[in-house]
Design a protein that fits this description.
Length: 105
């Protein structure tokens, strides 16, 4: 049976398709289901979440740095990580998300 599966996989890939084993498909389905249940902000560390809320509340990077005793560069690094993890492009998208989720007033 393993030979038949291998031959089918080779034919599919040769035709330009993609082959995914049944075991991998099950893992992917589980992962996707899990991701859909997790809110984007729940993937952030505590500090990233704190910085996100301050950005969404309208604070500047300098103000956030002063409030949290962090350098502007460190706050900017957190901001970049937050945007990447949440797949957002700018502070406006972040603020919209935070308001929609009820994370800021």
């Amino acid at each position: 049976m393993a030979i038949a599966v291998l031959i089918n996989a080779i034919h599919k890939v040769a035709r330009g398709g993609k082959y995914v084993s049944a075991a991998l498909a099950e893992k992917l389905a589980f992962y996707l289901e899990k991701d859909n249940e997790t809110a984007l902000h729940e993937t952030l560390s505590d500090r990233e979440y704190q910085v996100m809320c301050l950005i969404a509340s309208g604070k500047t990077v300098k103000e956030i740095g002063e409030e949290l005793a962090l350098s502007v560069k460190t706050v900017s690094t957190y901001r970049a990580r937050i945007l990447e993890k949440m797949q957002m492009k700018n502070n406006a998208a972040l603020t919209f998300y935070a308001v929609k989720q009820g994370l800021v007033g």
